Model the fold of this input.
Amino acid sequence: MPIKLYQFPPALGLPNASPFCMKLETYLRMAGLPFESVYTLNLARSPKGKLPYIDDDGTVVADSSLAIEHLKARHGDSLDGWLSPTERAVALAMRRLTEENLYWAMLYARWIDETGWPLTRKAFFGRMPVPLKWFVPHLARRGIRRELSGHGMGRHSPEEIYAIGKTDLTALAEFLGAKPFMMGDRASSLDATAYAFFANIVWVRQETPLKVHLRGHPHVEAYCQRMKARYYA
Done:
């Protein structure tokens, strides 16, 4: 029985406009695990009120990182087994930088910055029926604003937020360098995260300061092209 991956529908020209959904789908593809995507906007059915989550033969696991740990434990660790303890520590640090810090700068660019909000509203709420599309986007945006403030990123000025995001991107781009994959000559689960986040910046039709910054690191888009060709052909 294939693993069921519950995630948002594709949007913004990507397999998923949620980097966490795209990360988990990319991991499943990289690990060669059979799965089927169940596209949904219904967060109420998710165990934690968020997407993505998986149903692995009756075992439901929410959160992309927890789902990957479950998949490794049940199906084997085909991607990270070659890493040394030190390399595992470095990969974890890179993933945390991406998911726990850079993510918030991306969130601000899409949901709060007035240049990004129209695209986000159309992508996520454009197909909603009237009258939901009149008020649900604004409620969602208000919730995102509260989350950003609670995290702390939203308390900074726009210039400060983008400066933080650019610093994170520079660190990731320089760590990648000329290597085929984030950790070297072989792919690892870190590449699922890196590809999902990089693609959600460089391939979205929104001229954010983050996207402009990555143009100074052309090897990042080349990396995205390699990942797409290898796992999404």
